[in-house]
Amino acid sequence: MHIFHSIADLRSYLRLQRQQGKTVGFVPTMGALHEGHLSLIEASKAQNDLSVCSIFVNPIQFNNPDDLARYPRTLEADCAMLAPAGCDAVFAPSAEEMYGKANASNGLEPSNAYNKPILKFDFGPLEHVMEGQFRPGHFNGVGIVVSKLFNIVQPDRTYFGQKDLQQVAVVRRMMIDLGFQIELHSCPTLRESDGLAMSSRNRNLMAEERAIAPHIFKGLTLAKTLLLSGHTPAEVKREIAAHFEQQPSFRLEYFEIVDAHSLQTIEAMADAGQTALCIAAHLGKVRLIDNVVF
Amino acid sequence: MHIFHSIADLRSYLRLQRQQGKTVGFVPTMGALHEGHLSLIEASKAQNDLSVCSIFVNPIQFNNPDDLARYPRTLEADCAMLAPAGCDAVFAPSAEEMYGKANASNGLEPSNAYNKPILKFDFGPLEHVMEGQFRPGHFNGVGIVVSKLFNIVQPDRTYFGQKDLQQVAVVRRMMIDLGFQIELHSCPTLRESDGLAMSSRNRNLMAEERAIAPHIFKGLTLAKTLLLSGHTPAEVKREIAAHFEQQPSFRLEYFEIVDAHSLQTIEAMADAGQTALCIAAHLGKVRLIDNVVF
């Protein structure tokens, strides 16, 4: 498995592979890999000659500096998982490599080692809800870095986890609006045996928090059951609020019943094509998200 | 010369050419071609195996519906110029082909045949001046369509005219921020023998307007001379205002003395790397722009 830290080195490698007619699958990640990520690599390997995984904790998609500082960085362990999974190349650039070195003339504080992009993305109704509402600027950062990674890697196919449902919807729309000639594949969320969605942030949970963390997926399962048995969205929202009041360690940030593609709130089940139930909740210092789609 | 109206047909053609190892140069235009455009094709031919010209009057970059309606559409004449110039392929899509067909569920008025992008670009300080200030939303439309064309054509090099100086600055920044792996070439403005910058909009000038149109370039030349002989930017701005008062058929929209890359106003000549003098002026129903860089 090749490990690249520079854009130029990765590009030279990919150019040679392309000349041999190889197709390229791409899995963008922020590292701290778990089995969920490996399932994306597996999906890529099944459809492409070559699988590339990027590991980049993208500073411009964090609205909370503490969250950025706490985000686990485990490149060696990540590579030790990727190699046996059959990943062909890892791209692990620094922020300076991705965005260029900061220079005096751009008016940045000296604490920033990298050059912030000037261009800003606004995804309108797709980002004025849920994650976008609670993490202002998050999807601008996601859109910019994913575009940049797509342009650097130029894959045939790309693989995202459904756990970040809104991210998938935003990236899907971005690919339409900007004409990226890449197939987007959204892969199912992997769960621990007790139902907790796999997440890099799970490792920041204290033992007693980890023990009650499956309460989120239990809430989603309850909500789905209630909706399918004829309860209205308003009734289900009240039930979920009560469900989280039973576990006061949680602070529920949002629970939304939305159309899985437009991400807009569903008032009555008949309005939806595909329904997504989405939760964000704080547990100790950790913010967790999860969703189910049906 | 090949003429393509569909993205899929162009992509099939380009895929075959790429497999033969050919490099691709790309000239995006809105048609109504003149010698200035042909000089971009020439520049492309000198550096690439294959030259592609797109002709697309992009509705989302027009803030003024009358300007969009009046914009000349002359595909046959354009192709008759491009073929002898050695252009290899023309890409002339409809708005529906570029943006997709409008559908009932996206809330558009039925008068729009195409699907407007949801994603919006904001170039911050690069667009809050000059064209961006007087044509709100213009550079969003330019950024989206140029990104989309780049992703469709995937050229090695692209060629823009310096006449649209702010467009070049915006596209250059976009290419950095989104990591486009394409060389950008800005080519000198071509002028008629009396100094008028070549422009597709010139053909909308009435004869008497065409006769006085070179007043714009005379103003730029005067301004450059005054600045180089030691006059301050403030003095020169007063002189240019007076210069246009001599020709009351013009309505001067802006005259700016800016840094050619940051596009920010220069208060003193010592502050500038490269200086750009930029004018927009209305003459009858036509809005003309021009610039000189030194």
Automatic annotation (TrEMBL), chains A, B:
Name the Pfam families on file: Pantoate_ligase
State where ATP binds: 30-37, 161-164, 190, 198-201
Binding site residues for beta-alanine: 61
Q: Provide the E.C. number(s) assigned to this enzyme.
A: 6.3.2.1
Q: Which InterPro entries match?
A: Pantoate_ligase, Pantoate_ligase_C, Rossmann-like_a/b/a_fold
Pathway named in the protein's UniProt entry: Cofactor biosynthesis; (R)-pantothenate biosynthesis; (R)-pantothenate from (R)-pantoate and beta-alanine: step 1/1
What reaction does this catalyse? (R)-pantoate + beta-alanine + ATP = (R)-pantothenate + AMP + diphosphate + H(+)
Q: Where does (R)-pantoate bind?
A: 61, 167
GO BP, sorted A to Z: pantothenate biosynthetic process
UniProt main location, coarse: cytoplasm
Q: Which GO terms describe its molecular function?
A: ATP binding; pantoate-beta-alanine ligase activity
Signal peptide feature range: none
Provide this UniProt record's keywords sorted from A to Z: ATP-binding, Cytoplasm, Ligase, Nucleotide-binding, Pantothenate biosynthesis
GO CC, sorted alphabetically, is:
cytosol
Write out the catalytic residues in the record. Answer: 37
Compartmental location? Cytoplasm
Gene3D superfamilies in the record:
HUPs, Pantoate-beta-alanine ligase, C-terminal domain
**The keyword Transport is assigned to this record:** no
Q: Does the keyword Nucleotide-binding apply?
A: yes
Q: What other note does the entry give for this protein?
A: The reaction proceeds by a bi uni uni bi ping pong mechanism.
| Subunit structure and binding partners | Homodimer.
Q: What does this protein's UniProt record list under function?
A: Catalyzes the condensation of pantoate with beta-alanine in an ATP-dependent reaction via a pantoyl-adenylate intermediate.
Which NCBIfam families does this UniProt record tie to the protein? panC (TIGR00018)
Q: Which family does it belong to?
A: Belongs to the pantothenate synthetase family.
Protein name from the UniProt record: Pantothenate synthetase
Q: What is the lineage of its organism?
A: Bacteria, Pseudomonadati, Bacteroidota, Cytophagia, Cytophagales
Q: Which gene encodes it?
A: panC
